[in-house]
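Hi, here's the filled form for the chain we discussed.

Project: internal
Contact: R.S.
Residues: 337
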Amino acid sequence: MLREKQALIARELEEAVADVPSGEDAPMIPDERLGLMFACCHPALAIEAQVPLTLRLVGGLTVPEIARALLVPETTITQRLVRAKKKIRVSGIPLEEPARDRLDGRLRAVSAVLYLIFTEGYAATAGEALIREELAEEAIRLARVVHTLLPDEPEPAGLLALMLLQHSRRAARVGPGGALVLLDDQDRTRWDRPAIEEALPLVDRALVARRPAGPYALQAAIAALHAGAPTAEATDWRQIAALYAELLRVQPSPVVALNHAVAVAMADGPQAGLERLDRIGGALDAYHPFHAARADLLRRAGRREDAAAAYRRALELAGTEPERAFLAERLRRMGHG
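And the returned structure, exactly as it came back:
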């Protein structure tokens, strides 16, 4: 029950939360794990602490996994967890479920936690396998509960739609022997059509419910454009680039800027994308998808030696065996095996 879970949380925090008041026996949220997520995302904690704390204690991710997901050093995550522990202990912050009318105040952090858990399942950051399917499906299950609890909020609808659309491609993303298959090369007949059909009305609901659209709604709209293209060549990259430009305005980050640059490259050519990648600078130097994307654009632009160097850097940073094998094969095909 909830009190037992809170005791586990207390021990995980090195018993610093042992005296924190517990919540009621009867949970207000009809899922114990989700209730604990809302409990950990207490507004008295900075969101920079809420997310790693919840990922660690309830999501079950390790400190290295959290660091890779948030693109920050492991020492930074450890420091944030220590500070959160201290604040909970000193301030007596109660780890209990909020009332129904206060869920929206914690929605941003809980949504971030769920999407990061999903992302670690959809595209694992380390290990032998590219996909941790059970992790992605658990995040989808919890996102359904959030959407049920807050049916009039657009971002839970957008988040659920985004997860469904991305997860619908799982069977086509892995080839023989677990090899990585890029989006353009995937067999689209293997995409999960029922999941796509469930997601598309959610995308519409998320987009029309509020202006401007939120980040999950915008990402879901991008995923819907991919899902609606019968072939890679039919993808509306100009519309996708426009949506990424809006996402960059709403939620500016180097990763969004990277995705925008790739979309621009697909619409206007590799040089246009490379110019945008150059503006990101060193913000993503330790992020292997940045170097892999840059390598691909350099290859398409005919700059083979520069492309090989970028592929090597991506290979150094890649965390899973399928990604490393894919990058090594790209180097081999370029004569740099």
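Let me know if anything looks off before we file it.
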